[in-house]
Each structure stands twice: as C-alpha cells, then as structure tokens.
Design a protein that fits this description.
The complex is a heterodimer. By secondary structure, chain A is mainly β. Chain A is built from no helices and eleven strands. Chain B is mainly beta. Helices cover 0% and strands 51% of the residues of chain B. Chain B contains no helices and eleven strands. The termini of chain B are far apart. The chains are: A mainly beta, B mainly beta.
Chain lengths: 110, 112
C-alpha cells in the first residue's frame, strides 16, 4: 500500500462548481498534513496546512480525519485559475521527511 | 526576493557523462533536499541536508551524490548518468521546524 494515495483524476468541473478531493495515508503516526498546488511543469507551492480542527482559506477548506486516515480539500466556486494538480503531503512523524502523493488533477472549464 | 534557483533548467546529456545540477537558496534555510518527479510516481526524495556538512539519503539515492559545503548551496551530482535518471528534478528548502517547502523551478534532465 502506498504511503499516500490520491485519485489521479482528472476532475473536470464547470466554473462555479464545488469540488472535493480526498487523500488517504497509511501511517497512523503521521503528524502533519498539507495540500500543495502544482501547475503544469512548474514547481509545487504550499496551498494550505491541514489542522485537526479543519481550516478554511477563502474558497478552500481542508479537513483531517485521523480515525479513517484521510484528509480532504474542498474548493467552492471553482475558477478557471484553480486548474492545476493538487498534491497531498504528509509528514510521517520523522523530522526530515515529507511524503508526497502523486496528485489529483483538476480542470475547471467554462 | 526569496527564492530557490536551479541550473540548468533543461539538460540533455549522454550516458556516463558526469553532470552537476546546482541549487541555491537565499532564505538562510537550514534544510534542503532534492526530489525527482516521474509520471505516476509523484515526487520522491533523493537526498536531504539538515545543515552544512550534514547530508542523508532519501528514498531513491542510488546513482546520485550531494554536498553541502555552504548553507545556501546544495548541488546534485550524477557521476555516471543513465537513461533511467531521465526525470524532472526539484530542489527545495525550508526552515527546520517548518514544513512549508520552497521549491526551485525544476530541471528537466534527459539522458540518452
């Protein structure tokens, strides 16, 4: 089983739609969780951290479910500019390491 | 401007010809690492460094070397490149204690 698993997509949604991605992780000792965004052929950039209580940043909401070992990202009112690959990232409990999922591709269309 | 730079951005080379990809950051970060990204496999860590003269293997270190003689620089060395090292390479840095990683723009390497 992969350490971090994501549905590769693509998720094709119309502008204005709400879309949600899930990501599962295998190591129950994992401590920190993040969503990164990667535009085509560009470097990944931190989108948001994921806190136990859930957190929101504008149209983006991240949730953590430790019991079921998954995190989620909800995007409301999708924009064309949201089209990208969203990477789920987990710190498995060692200070040095971040484990990246393979990403979920989102395509927002007119 | 806070940034991580990598050079070259694109490189086509032949099997066995030693090459170095440079990485430099201007944020005084202690932690630096190298990743490779391949379709369907995601980002995999090659090597990392917690500080000057401290380096360690990541998940896929075979065929690579690194050095950390200065805090700002973390070059990736391929002593004898092979076609299976054709990939997109990213350098990244962050503060120890933070998990916000800053990535360089990537180096697309093709080994023929």
């Amino acid at each position: 089983r992969k350490e971090v698993e994501q549905d590769p997509g693509p998720f094709n949604v119309p502008e204005g739609a709400t879309v949600a991605f899930n990501c599962t992780y295998s190591n129950s000792a994992s401590q920190s969780f993040f969503w990164y965004r990667q535009d085509c052929r560009k470097e990944p950039k931190l989108l948001m951290s994921v806190y136990s209580s859930g957190n929101e940043d504008g149209r983006f909401t991240a949730q953590l479910n430790r019991a079921s070992q998954y995190i989620s990202l909800l995007i409301r009112d999708s924009k064309l500019s949201d089209s990208a690959t969203y990477l789920c990232v987990v710190n498995p409990g060692t200070a040095s390491k971040l484990t990246f999922g393979t990403g979920t591709r989102l395509q927002v269309t007119l | 401007e806070a940034q991580v730079t990598q050079n070259p951005r694109y490189l086509i080379t032949v099997t066995g010809k030693k090459l170095t990809v440079t990485c430099s950051q201007n944020m005084n970060h202690e932690y630096m690492s190298w990743y490779r990204q391949d379709p369907g496999l995601g980002l995999r860590q090659i090597y990392y460094s917690m500080n000057v003269e401290v380096t360690d293997k990541g998940d896929v270190p075979e065929g690579y070397k690194v050095s950390r003689k200065e805090k700002r620089n973390f070059p990736l060395i391929l002593e004898s490149p092979s076609p299976n090292q054709t990939s997109l390479y990213f350098c990244a840095s962050r503060q120890v204690g933070s998990y916000e990683q800053y990535f360089g723009p990537g180096t697309r390497l093709t080994v023929t």
